[in-house]
Amino acid sequence: MDSQLAYLLSPQTGKATARLRNYQVQQGSFWGRRSSIAPISGAAGAIALLVATPLTIIASCVALQHFDGSILDMLSMLWLDGIGPFTNRYFPTPTLSSFIAYISWVAFQAALHMAIPGKAHTGQLTPGGNVLQYKINGLRTSIIVVVLFLLSGTAGLLDLSCIARSWPGILLASIIYGYLVSIVTYLKAHLAPSHIKDTRFSGSPIHDFFSGCELNPRWGRDWDIKLFHIGRPGMCGWMMIDISFAALQVQKYGFISNSMIAVLIFHGIYIVDFFWNEDWYLRTIDIHHDHFGFYLAWGSTVWLPVLYSLQAQFLAYNPVHLSSTIFALTLILGLAGYTIFRSANHQKLSVRLMKGNCMVFGQKARVIKSTYKISDGSVHESLLLYSGWWGYARHANYTGDILMAFAFCACCGMSHILPWTYFIYLTLLLINRCFRDEARCREKYGGHWERYCQIVRWRLCPGLF
Ligand code: NDP
User: Which residues contact 92 (CB under 8 A, 6 or more apart)?
Assistant: First the structure.
């Protein structure tokens, strides 16, 4: 820590947070971090999302539970009833048992994270100059959680459809928990940040609450709050919700539809891939660049498991039978998307880990040697790959993801928009990310990035975008 920063943060100086913010403004923004945002007007987007996201999640539950998944029917009823009576009639009711069950499950995941051994992996150099260690044991702990769930179901100790049957209560429990995590981490950033140089304050408390202040908040040295919440309540929760709604379909209709099987296969591949490659995930924007606020805290505990499992939720109430041709085409499309997604991500990771000395599509990787500065002014080197998938488009990994999302949703047929929410959301998110990420990369790498953009002209798909 440089001496000026040490002085600003020493307890005697008081008001450390305000002083740190001034210090950051003096340093200027770097890597796409805006150093100053107007308190309310600058945070308009954050305010809109703080309101819209919980409403979307609750609306999905109401539409599925009361209107056969029809958003149009739900909105017509809202129009006829008026907000007050509609809310009274359909708003999910919180239950103490669901809340206790949810919190116990998160606590169990936390206990497993501590108890189960895992390899130590390091993340990338942060803007503040930190290289953090992570305990990687998500695959093991998630297998334990999911297998225990399945065994308890087959042994008759619990009903596998219990999550689906208590869905409104569990949904509300996760929403409350997501808010608690967001509030606690916001306060923690002000009172006891883990890595002060990677903590930022924008001047807008609303923006800070939404986007986060700390980059990688931790309890103690190793317990990474961000990685834990994305992986355990997020990805592992998604798997369990899927299983539970599949069980509900079997109980309601006496069969499991081929569309549900396809959804379980796709989601299963995506989730296992995440845990299998958990060390790769340390180098993604979520971990390496995005701060931990409502966006990631509430997003990973609520938005991710609920919205991403919508296809399974929908099919539990509205089974769709896909013809063998559509079934095969959907599987081919989804697997093609997965192949692009995984191989593009793998190419980028290999090039960085092997310092460019690796093969990509059977040829030596072509890279631009780039440099960037971190907050203490020191200069570091990095590589920008421009062969393999990264020679076709600057975000080929997103293209694979979007193809997969299309295949996930196509399993539900075209009759309803609700299960397509994931595809619409992911496409918008990743297009927005293209711009957001490129703005940051331009700031980080300057002329090197410009050169890369001249060589690789397209963002997602050559000739299109
Ligand atoms: P990337 O993994 O593509 O990471 C972007 C970063 O990679 C950049 O900020 C830069 O970081 C580095 N980079 C950019 N171009 C190059 C290049 N040519 N060569 C080497 N490094 C480069 O993006 P994300 O973290 O957003 O996504 C990771 C995966 O996760 C994607 O496949 C995406 O589809 C998926 N995803 C899925 C979501 C979902 O909800 N389902 C949400 C978000 C992502 P640096 O500072 O290291 O140079």
Answer: 58, 61, 62, 167, 168, 169, 171, 172
Average pLDDT for the chain: 91
Domain count across the chain: 2
Instruction: Locate 339 and state its tokens.
Output: 């192949």
Rounded to 5 degrees, φ, ψ at 383 are -125, 140
Same domain? 310 vs 422? no
Atom index in ligand 1 nearest the CA of residue 390 equals: 18
* Ligand 1 lined by 426 (C-beta under 6 Å): yes
Provide the pLDDT for residue 35: 63
**Which tokens sit at 13?**
């100086």
CA 55 to chain centre: 19
Tokens 């499992």, residue? Answer: 309
Closest CA to 398 of 284, 238, 288, 302: 284
Ligand 1 pocket member 441 (CB < 6 A): yes
pLDDT at 33: 58
Same domain, 304 and 329: no
Please state, as a whole number, how many other Cβ atoms lie within 10 Å of the Cβ of residue 306.
Answer: 23
DSSP string across 87-143? HHHHSPPP-HHHHHHHHHHHHHHHHHHHHS--EEEE-PPPTTS---EEEE-HHHHHH
Burial class for 463, CB neighbours closer than 10 Å (0-12, 13-18, 19+): exposed
Same domain? For 195 and 272 the reply is yes
Check if 348 has its Cβ closer than 6 Å to any atom of ligand 1. yes
* Predicted model pTM: 0.90
Is the beta carbon of 20 within 6 A of some atom in ligand 1? Answer: no
Enter the tokens of residue 444: 């980080």
Alpha carbon of 199 to ligand 1 centroid (Å): 22
Same domain? 308 vs 337: no
